Each structure stands twice: as structure tokens, then as C-alpha cells.
Amino acid sequence: MEEIEKYSGHPIDYKTAQYLAACRGAYKAICMAEKHDREEEGHAGAADKGQGDHWIKQWMEHLENEDGTTGPHYTMDQVEQYRRSLGINCPIKELYAATNMMYSDYCRVLRKYGVDRIEVY
Predict the structure, then answer these.
(1) Which residues pair with 64 in a beta bridge?
(2) Are the C-beta atoms of 84 and 109 separated by less than 8 Å?
(3) Residue 64 backbone dihedrals phi, psi, to 5 degrees
(4) Looking at the chain, which terminus has fewer C-beta neighbours within 10 angstroms, N or C?
(5) What is the rounded CA–CA span in Å between residue 65 and residue 82?
(6) What is residue 42's three-state secondary structure?
């Protein structure tokens, strides 16, 4: 929210609008996670069983991609393959969400410049 507020009242160009759209997407994901966490309180062991990440799947299903499609473009298995091959050390579900979010926001421009590849996202 701080980033979004920082830009309020300033003239907005295309690049700034894209940045603000990415901030909005991140903010929505955080809100969904917090809402889910509140709903899950009192359900011991839910996160241990992988149910605590259900909000990620819900958020991913509602991505509106720049290529006109909706939902995740890459599968968890595809992201995991590149995570290992590139030596990235982070939680797979976070990388899965971030990769698909980047695809959603930037696929058209990266395709235009010939770098539309999973390792770029």
C-alpha cells in the first residue's frame, strides 16, 4: 500500500501503471492470504497438510494474463524443473506464484523481444 500511495497524485505513464498493477496484484494476494489465515485459525495442522496454501491456487486461477488467457501459464512441475536447473533456493509455491504472476503481467512485452521463456519469468 505504501508503494501505491507514493504514486498517488503524480502523473502516471505506462511504465508506472504497469508497476502499480503489479503492486495491486501483490496486495490482493497478501489480502487473500491474510483472509485465509484468519479462516484457518483453530484448524490445527491445516498448513502442515498443504491446505494453508489453498489461497495461492485460488489466486492463480483468477490471473488475467496479458495474452488474453486466465489462470496459471506454467505448471508447478515446470517451475520445479527450472528451479532445480537454475539452482534457485526458495519455496516452490512462492516461485510458482511469482513466475506465473510475471508471465501474466509481462508475457506480451517479453514475447515481443523474443525472451518469452520460463527461465526469464
Answers:
(1) 70
(2) no
(3) -110, 100
(4) N
(5) 21
(6) coil
- For the chain, the 3-state helix, strand and coil shares in percent, each to the nearest 5, are 65, 0, 35
- Express each pLDDT in 15-57 by its tens digit: 877 777 777 777 777 776 666 555 555 444 444 445 446 777 7
- Structural contact between residues 101 and 63, judged by C-beta atoms closer than 8 angstroms: yes
CB 100 within 8 A of CB 74: yes
Query: CA 31, CA 45: separation in Å to the nearest integer?
Result: 22
Whole-structure pTM value: 0.58
Read off the C-alpha cell for 120. Answer: 526469464
CA torsion sign for 59, 101, 22, 50 is positive
d(CA 75, CA 13): 33
Pseudo-torsion of CA 120, 26, 92, 60, nearest 10°? -90
